[in-house]
Amino acid sequence: xxxxxxxxxxxxxxxxxxxxxxxxxxxxxxRIPSLVDELGITxxxxxxxxxxxxxxxxxxxxxxxNIAQILGPNWYADAEAGVQMLIRRNDDGELVxx
Length: 98
Prior knowledge:
Blueprint: E1 2-4, E2 7-11, E3 16-20, E4 26-32, E5 38-45, E6 47-52, H1 58-64, H2 67-71, H3 75-80, E7 85-89, E8 95-97
Antiparallel strand pairs: 1-2, 2-3, 4-5, 4-7, 5-6, 7-8
């Protein structure tokens, strides 16, 4: 994962995905039903992209998207407690909590 101003860039073993932050229309964050406690974030930007907090860069990634500013400082604890959160782009083009 690379963090560039106004751009999301991910690169795995097989593929590379890059899109402008301005293309994000929605972000969902919540707990994942699994054998281990995980949080997941799905970014809807034309396609949907899914990441979990098992990635070392997860918190840096959410920081680059200003998640704490949008959802509040306790967003991670809320998600761990089972709260599903949705962020959408409003008519002014800003990402806001729904």
